[in-house]
Structure formats: C-alpha cells, structure tokens
Design a protein that fits this description.
This is TetR family transcriptional regulator. InterPro entries: Homeodomain-like_sf (IPR009057), HTH-type_TetR-like_transc_reg (IPR050109), HTH_TetR (IPR001647), Tet_transcr_reg_TetR-rel_C_sf (IPR036271). Residues 31-91 form the HTH tetR-type domain. The chain is flat and about 65 Å long. It has 2 domains: 3-86, Homeodomain-like (Arc Repressor Mutant, subunit A, Orthogonal Bundle), CATH 1.10.10; 93-190 and 233-268, Tetracycline Repressor, domain 2 (Orthogonal Bundle), CATH 1.10.357.10. The protein has 14 helices and no strands. The chain has helices spanning 12-17, 34-48, 55-62, 66-69, 76-86, 101-117, 121-128, 136-147, 156-187, 191-205, 212-219, 228-232, 237-243, 248-268. With 269 residues, the protein is mainly alpha-helical. The relative contact order is 0.09.
Amino acid sequence: MSTDDVPTELPREVLAAWGELPGGSRGPRAELSLEAITATAVELADREGLAAVSMGRVAKALGYTTMSLYRHVANKDELLRHMQDAALGPAPRHLTEGMQWRDGLTVWTRQILLELGRHPWSIEIASSISSGPLMPRSLEWTDWGASLLTDVPLPPIEKLSCLMLLNGYARNEVAMGGGNLREQRRRGTDTMQEELLFQRGFERFATAERLPALHRLVEDGLFPAVDPEMIAGPGDELEYVIDHGLLDFGLQRILDGIEVHIRRHLDAD
C-alpha cells in the first residue's frame, strides 16, 4: 500500500473525544455535551445492560430529543466507542508511584481488570466494533503503563507489545467474567453461589470412571475450602476476587515471561 492510500483524516469520534471536532454546540440548548451523552449511556448500560442503550433512550434520559444527540454523536456505533473508552475512567497513576516495573504492571493490569469488570458491557462492544487505540482514556492508560517501563532495556515496540499482552489478558478475564455475570442475572445468583454450583457439578461428573484425570485433580485438592468472608458477601465482590489472587495466576506467568525476555536483552548487551 502506498502512502497515497493512507487516510489523511482521523476518525470523527477520535477528534470529538479529544475536543478537536469543530461545531457540536450550535442551536438551542447547546449545553448538551458529548461527555453528558456518554455518561448517561454508561449509566444506562450499567443498570440495564448494553442492549438497553439506544439514541432514543439516552436522549429521553437527558431530557432532549433524539435529533439533538446527532449534533454530538453521528450514530450509535460512535456512541458505543465513546462508552468503551469511558469505561476505563481516569488512570490512577498514584497507585504505582515508586514501584519497580513488575509490581507496577501488576497493579496496572489489575486496575484494567477492575475498571472494565465493573462495566463488562465494554467487552461486548469490543467484540462487535473497533474502538481504536487513539481515544483519550486508552492512550492515557497506555501512557501510564509505558511510564512503568521507562528504565526497562527493551525496544519501544516491545514495551508497547508487553502492554498489549497484559491488556489483552485483563480483557479476556473480563469477557469470561461477563458471561458468568449474565448467567448470574438470569439465575438470580451471585458469584459465590455459582462457584459452589460449579464445584458440585464438577465433582459429580468427574468420576474416576468417566474422567479419571479430572477426578485425580479433585482428589488432589482442586477446590479449596470455602472462604466464609466470601459467603458473607464483601462490599465489592470483583475487588475481593482480584485481591485474593483468584485471577492472578495467568498474570504472574505473563510477567515471568516478560522478566525472562528482559534478562535476555541484558545478557545480550
């Protein structure tokens, strides 16, 4: 592909998100803003799920006509892209002050998981449309991650690849958890109840005759004792799961690999 084939203009939603799109404030009741539209759509998705979000529903919640929204958002797909970027929230850089790269990236990845886990519909959006990496929150969080690798002896593209790998891990965990959350809503259960149901079913079907390798895992202590604190219902169930390391195994193995890769670079110098 020649340079003549490369688009010269950035996507409309990217320019709008950065406040560089001209217009959008003409006409009556010009106080309506992209930020207000996006925030209302996020609240609606949090409360009722992504399927409930429409231009009409958002406009009604704001007290405007549907046509008023089109001065700020071209269509629903564009609104979804803004919602997906907003799901991350501001990057809490203070959480990693003074940390070495590995501890810092552990916190960085867990925070992505935590933020998106509170808005699992953001992963649904990613599965259907591309949000693009140039949106403000996306670049803000990437910049935070890159700052943790400042003194790491890797080429720039490999630093960015490390962040993409960790970001992908967090999003995959949220995608899996989002499916579980939808099932919980359908059945009227919580995470702990679903875990116990899974354990009972697993133990029931993974017999020595049917599934001998899985049965051996059960016999060797696959399922830990139930934590009474979890049954009691902590204030933030998702945060509890992350803090107690139940989603941490894969993250630490990825970081192990990055650490080995860094050592190879050091040995080669």
